[in-house]
Specification:
Strand content of chain B: 25-35%
Number of strands of chain B: 14
Helix content of chain B: 10-25%
Strand order of the largest sheet of chain B: 2-1-6-7-14-10-11
Strand content of chain A: under 5%
Oligomer: heterodimer
Distance between the termini of chain B: 23 Å
Radius of gyration of chain A: 17 Å
Number of helices of chain A: 7
Largest sheet of chain A: none
Largest sheet of chain B: 7 strands, antiparallel
Chain lengths: 192, 236
């Protein structure tokens, strides 16, 4: 008698998504070359690849006002520590260039959340539970941002990943962390 | 399965605590978590080289704080007006001592480099940082160890530059942290000149090596987590 042990479907899904994430990063490097970290086309291609992966994994955009409101509040909370430690010195240091950048960042940030807190979250949760889904999403999220912001950004991005994961758990939707991500990025445009 | 309110609150509390801890142990200069860098203006030089994209002059910045009990009362967080700022200075409360003064002033002025560090080439402008008081002299207090200066490099090329400092005479290297794509942070030993400089033999890299390392780290991290969970379940 031969016993064959097959990998559980959720394990395969997680593996496929991680492989897809690797391919998306490779695509970004291929398009952006030396400027992969800051290239807009490379960033948009990365976002498109993540969106395709998430859609392929069955994640669907379902927007509810409640999720967006919770997400916006979560984004403000992310920017709050910086604002509180710089009270009195905050101001609009920049005015031009927001519209195009803001739209691109909204697309990429939403794509990242659709992937990390959507498809990857669902796959890991099915395999290892909710807490592990939050943790894996946060680790992966922090790791892919190191090339852009350096190792110094790892603690804050890891914590931000946990925060986004918590918003996903609380609302049951990836739309809330997407809203938080976009709002935090937009606020960062002026808070720098 | 719907989660209880207590469990949802626990998730938010844990994540919020992680955020607070991260801000305390590794405060980020920019709370940005996206995948695209800000649309920075071209670097502004005091003395533009032929390769400069713009001849717009860089800005300086000045901040004031009242003096209470001999120390600066306010946090002084100063940024120059470029997009993004080429000089950022953060001076916490009680970092500057001026016993007989009622106000202290911090000023950051970009200057053209005059004299290079040994074995390195200054990238962009030098930032001259000065402390002054309306009466008497200014010395530094113990909180100056929490002060920092952030300079923007002319590009994000890696390996990155090191921050150098001098009052008079020769430059000395400071511990330098990369806090953004092209911005670097160091502590503030005192007033004087600060500059970013690349090692003379440094070669530019594409950064793809870092991406590969991170990619491998992501895959290894996920595999280790999955194996750990599997092991724990078997034991259970």
């Amino acid at each position: 008698v031969t016993t064959v042990t097959l990998a559980r479907p959720s394990t395969l899904r997680v593996g496929a998504l991680v492989a897809g994430l690797a391919a998306a990063i490779a695509l970004r490097v291929a398009i952006g070359g030396a400027d992969a970290r800051t290239s807009l086309p490379a960033g948009l291609a990365f976002g498109a690849a993540l969106t395709a992966l998430a859609l392929g994994a069955g994640v669907r955009p379902r927007f509810r006002a409640r999720h967006l409101v919770v997400g916006a509040a979560g984004g403000v909370a992310l920017a709050l520590p910086f604002a509180l430690t710089h009270v009195g010195s905050l101001g609009v240091h920049r005015t031009g260039g927001f519209a195009g950048w803001g739209l691109a960042v909204a697309l990429v940030a939403s794509a990242e959340e659709m992937f990390f807190r959507g498809s990857l979250f669902d796959a890991v949760r099915a395999r290892s539970g909710e807490a592990m889904a939050v943790a894996v999403g946060a680790v992966a999220f922090a790791a892919v941002h190191v090339p852009l912001y350096g190792w110094g950004s790892l603690p804050i991005d890891l914590a931000a990943g946990l925060w986004f994961g918590a918003l996903r758990v609380v609302t049951g939707s990836w739309v809330a962390p997407a809203g938080a991500h976009v709002v935090a990025d937009w606020l960062g445009f002026w808070l720098r | 399965v719907a989660l209880s309110r207590r469990r949802k609150a626990a998730y938010l509390g844990a994540a919020g605590s992680a955020l607070a801890l991260a801000w305390i142990v590794a405060p980020a200069g920019v709370p940005i978590y996206d995948g695209i860098g800000n649309p920075d203006d071209p670097y502004r030089y005091v003395s533009p080289p032929p390769s400069a994209v713009t001849d717009k002059a860089p800005s300086s910045v000045t901040g004031h704080s009242p003096v209470v009990n001999g120390f600066n009362k306010d946090l002084l967080f100063l940024t120059t007006r470029e997009m993004g700022p080429q000089i950022t200075v953060s001076i916490p409360q009680k970092s500057l001592r001026a016993d007989s003064a009622t106000q202290v002033t911090v000023h950051a002025e970009p200057e053209a480099p005059a004299g290079q560090p040994s074995g390195a080439t200054i990238d962009g402008n030098v930032a001259r940082l000065t402390f002054a008081a309306d009466k008497g002299s200014v010395t530094t207090g113990k909180n100056i160890s929490f002060a920092y200066v952030v300079l923007r490099a002319t590009s994000g090329r890696q390996p990155g530059p090191t921050m150098y400092y001098r009052t008079t005479g020769s430059w000395r290297a400071l511990h330098t942290s990369r806090v953004g794509n092209d911005i670097y942070q160091s502590g503030i030993p005192g007033p004087g000149e600060y500059a970013l400089a690349f090692a003379a033999d440094a070669k530019s890299s594409s950064g793809s090596h870092t991406l590969v390392i991170v990619l491998v780290a992501v895959i290894v991290g996920v595999v280790v987590l999955l194996l750990a969970v599997r092991l724990l379940r078997r034991r259970a």
